[in-house]
Amino acid sequence: MESILSKIHPNEEGFYSLHLDGLRFESAFQPIYDKTMAIYGVECLVRIFDAQGHSINPGLFFSELSDQLERFSFAILAASTLHVRNFAKSNYRDKHLFINTSPLLFEELANNPSAIDHLVGALHYYGLAPSQLIYEIMEMAGESERLAVSGVQNLLNNQIRTAIDDFGSHYSTKERVRLLYPAFVKVDKSIIQAGVSPMQNAIACAHSVNALTIAEGIEDQQTLNQCIEVGFDYFQGYYLARPTKPM
């Protein structure tokens, strides 16, 4: 944990940046709302900049590291620690923190006791409860169903919950939901735009494993109203709030 903390420094906004491999990593938070339009939590997104201040695509950066597992794991764990530190200092610190991770990395980190200890230690260090953290498993292929299942349980044993991200897109399927029993199912924008029946089917799938539902990609009041009427638990999208720097 010390080696990661040594790479996280205060920035001009009064929060923190991660400095790694000559690059600067920043946090951005997008709120998630409940049915009363109170903020339930925030999804943490990473913004990466080079020495000249040019933006770098995070997906491209992490994909280029994916065949270097040790560096890949360190970078993701460092970014997660950055998010935790900024979240702890933000106005959202009493809410919930959603952090994206690829299935491959989830399988690696969630079955690594020292990585879990680091996460739990970081949460306690900044005065947060593990139950505030939710790891979102992205819509990518995994490698081992056994490792994914054990990873979910290992995190749950430490009060850290999981979510399936972008349900209905690529690998975020009914089969993955029924395999992993996540606490949350985030339903992809494509399902939200497809109409009432697909939304009802997604909610039914989530409820079959006692998961709560989050409607993603809400871009207007009509869509928000429809999602509320259909029975989603939580709501996220540019109509409600765009990702912003920590406040």
Automatic annotation (TrEMBL):
Please give the InterPro entries that the UniProt record associates with this protein: Cyclic-di-GMP_PDE-like, EAL_dom, EAL_sf
Q: Where is the EAL domain?
A: 7-247
Q: Where are the transmembrane segments?
A: none
Q: Which GO terms describe its molecular function?
A: cyclic-guanylate-specific phosphodiesterase activity
Any one Pfam family here would be EAL
User: Per its UniProt entry, which superkingdom is the organism in?
Assistant: Bacteria
* Full protein name: EAL domain-containing protein
- Give the organism the record lists: Vibrio vulnificus
